[in-house]
Write a structure and sequence with these properties.
single chain; alpha/beta; Rossmann fold; 8 strands; EC 3.8.1.3; Haloacetate dehalogenase H-1
Length: 295
Amino acid sequence: MTAFFDLPVRRIPANGMDIAARIDGSGPPLLLLHGHPQTHAIWHRVWPELTRHRTCIAADLRGYGDSAKPAASPDHAAHSKREMAADMVGLMRALGHERFDVLAHDRGARVAHRMALDHASAVSRMMLLDIAPTLDMYEGTTRAFAQAYFHWFWLIQPAPGPETMIEHDPVFYLRSVMGGRPGGLAHFSAEAMAEYERAAQLPGWATGICEDYRASATLDLEHDRAGRAAGERLRMPVRVLWGERGAVGKNFDVLDLWRAVADDVSGGPLPGAHYLAEETPEALLADAGAFFGWR
């Protein structure tokens, strides 16, 4: 297998967007989705093992990394999880994969949640890292959670306020968010940090991340509420892992919240905080191997 950072980044048209991805490995397809404020490079430490067992497609969400960065729309629909999910289904179909497994972190896990509802026939199994359902997190917000996840409430403020401040020094913003969690920046390799910092300085990045969060606090919640009212549930096996030192597990009953919206849920904490693929790669790989079936 080719080393992760030596692989070319491909740009593949999907859902009207060019989606950037690295692809390698053999076996059944596994879609890998990253979170904020990172790129698909979060998977570099688990990539060698994953690609021994699966054809891995590590993609950048729209607005992030080297994927297309659409302009903001008044209703934030261009950055809704519904559109991001359609991007990823389109990407996988363009690569010849009608059905696939998903391993997703943070914002990518929120995209995966919507994808598994809107495109249930496409998702075989899904592992979600360090999230509870978005609707429940907003409705269950406490002071402790708001303080730990301040960016949720700052990024949704009206444009161009957050964008202007981020664009003044995007590297500072990125380092402050990533370094503000337990363990600081020590978890991240120099090569990965250089990639995250490069991506944060690309035109349109600040708009993309702000609109991602604005959509989550508005249109995405409308979609979630409507879906629940209609009886929407996740029918495929779902595995949920979170960091034992992180804010999600400390502020929410993660498994109970997922069991309320899914039929087949399991999971538990890993010995990390939030960036599990980089903090605790061995523990994540052991759990993923058991869940996806190669161990």
